[in-house]
Amino acid sequence: MEIAVISGKGGTGKSSVSAAFATLLPNVVLADCDVDAANLYLLFHPTIKEEQVFISGQKAVIDKAICTNCGVCIDYCRFDAISEMNGEVLISETSCDGCQLCARICPLEAISMVQEDKSRLYAGDFRNGKMVYGRLSPGEENSGRLVDVVREKAKAMAKAVGIETIIIDGPPGIGCPVISSVTGVDRVVVVTEPTLSGLHDLKRTLEVTSNFEIKTQVIINKFDLNEDMSNTIVTYCAGEGITVTGKIPFDPQVVEAMVHCKSIVEYAPDSEASRIILSAFNAI
Amino acid sequence: MTESNHFKIAIASGKGGTGKTFVSTNLFNVLRKLSYHVSLVDCDAEEPNDREFLSGEETERMDVTQQVPVIDENKCTYCGKCFEYCHYNAIFFLEEARIIKVMDELCHGCGACSVACEYGAITEKDDVLGTVTQYQIAQNASLIEARMKVGVHSPVPVIKAAIKQAKQTDIVLMDAPPGTSCPFIQTVNLSDYVVLVTEPTPFGLSDLKQSVETLKTLGKHYGVIINRAGLGDNKIYDYLNQEKIPLLMSIPFDRKIASLYSTGKILTNEDLDWEMQFNELFNFIVTRHGDSRH
User: Is B2 touching A (CB cutoff 8 A)?
Assistant: First the structure.
């Protein structure tokens, strides 16, 4: 069973909930799919057994020895990545989308494509099973593809050692890496917070999960920071036919647990937060 | 790198939910009160939130589109050249079965397939990726919101279009998307100064380090705001000292601030002391990094 924890809005406590889920069972595969800012390895210090290079894309590079600065490529590029400065044609690495069109149309074949190979996938063991995470090199693209690779690896590991549960810690937002994190999973848990931003982002996130027809549940973190807003969220979810399976109170121990490299259920198993996370997990 | 007639500050963070929107809306609010001609661009196109805190009349709205191909099957010879040219696997092609289909959701609108086709079988249509909306918050202050359509793969084209809209004002604030990948780079790369908002936790520190490394590569000036100070640990302060990164502001964890924020209220409208602190924040940045005009 694959369970994905996502949030729409960042910083709602998604990773804290994922970490707690991952330590409620003796044996899980944990896939950190927040490939832009993977963090769970900080709590679990996995022993890395495998490292793979992930080719995230390609960028166009001009061979200055061949280029005559004719500028034909400038007209073809739709990403405004090529410009002329003081008579010299230049490609902006940050704007290049890697479509390769400039390389194809250059009359002198002065442009070639260079692979971006700085992103990595790591896999290994942690105290409650196996762990996989991706690390997208800053500025690189195709995080959705890297999420796919992390999930494929997690499934393969689960199958190899006979583990049934895969916990996916997803990225924030609603774009490509989020869609890749939730496509085909058995259950999505959306962690939100009782703020106007939290509610706004929750609505957009539920739109994504309903488009993909995935069974979804909601957890409200720090619900007591604004109980009226929490009630609004519960009412909204009820209207959408979605159950709020847990309302976690604000508890400084959640942050303390992180500082001590533990999940909240490891650090303070008897706390109210742990009790609610357990019951939300049992609801799955 | 930027046109010198306006000063651009990006508010960013590696980790999500550290308080980018809180800092952006408050900084915008004090600049509005100081009568600067200011615009705030909400570049978090996947989850734009600034509008929840600011009210104003919508003055302009435009769709951001890209060109996606339409294949005329009567003209298509099923040669497969467009399929070969497409780097994004957006063209589904079975040569023997003579099946060719465009998958709009994978298309990046690069136009390579149109160039590839030798039979005039490909034309293009507009595909909406999102909207850029402008709101007049005060006479001297406007909000420009980038909002990606749900289901679109990348927010970058919408972000770029929104930033283009902000060219006319003296000061441009950009509330950046989280992370350090493409959407973040597109935003901070256009700024003169970057305010990184973080929190004093192991996750916050790890993501801050990644942001700092990225900004160093881009050659940007930056400083750090620590939010929810008092929760977590002190390692982040050691890191800032060691790297000689200016600590611009420290915002304590305070239930009052959190609860005010949760209802969409702006702290600098409610609390004079915080208004002064945000004024000082701006002065610090401008004295060090703004041009002489301000």
Answer: no
Cβ contact B186–A11 (<8 Å): no
Q: Inspect the interface and report whether the beta carbons of A104 and B16 lie closer than 8 Å.
A: no
Q: Which DSSP symbol is given to B285? A: H
Specify the CATH number of the domain A57-116: 3.30.70.20
Bridging pattern class, strands B91-94 and A82-85: unpaired
Nearest chain A alpha carbon to B261: A195
Q: What is the 3-state secondary structure (H, E, C) of A50-108?
A: EEEEECCEEEEEECCCCCCCCCHHHHHCCCCCEEEECCEEEECCCCCCCCCHHHHHCCC
B7-64+130-289 has which CATH code?
3.40.50.300
Give CATH 3.30.70.20 domain extents, chain A: 57-116
The ipTM is: 0.86
Q: pTM of the predicted model, to two decimals?
A: 0.90
Question: What distance in Å separates residue B241's CA from the closest CA in chain A?
Answer: 20
**Fold (topology level) of A2-55+119-282:** Rossmann fold (3.40.50)
Query: Domain residue spans in chain B?
Result: 7-64+130-289, 73-120
Residues in contact with A199: Cβ distance below 8 Å, sequence separation at least 6, in sequence order: A192, A229, A232, A233, A236
Q: Quick one: CATH architecture of B73-120?
A: 2-Layer Sandwich (3.30)
The answer for B 91-150 residues in CB contact with A (under 8 A) is 108-112, 115, 148, 150
**pLDDT tens, N- to C-terminus, chain A (284 residues):** 999 999 988 889 999 999 999 999 999 999 999 998 889 999 999 999 999 999 989 999 999 999 999 999 999 999 999 999 999 999 998 889 999 999 999 999 999 999 999 999 999 999 999 999 999 988 787 788 999 999 999 999 999 999 999 999 999 999 889 999 999 999 999 999 999 999 999 999 999 999 989 999 999 999 999 999 999 999 999 999 999 999 999 999 999 999 999 999 999 999 999 999 999 999 99
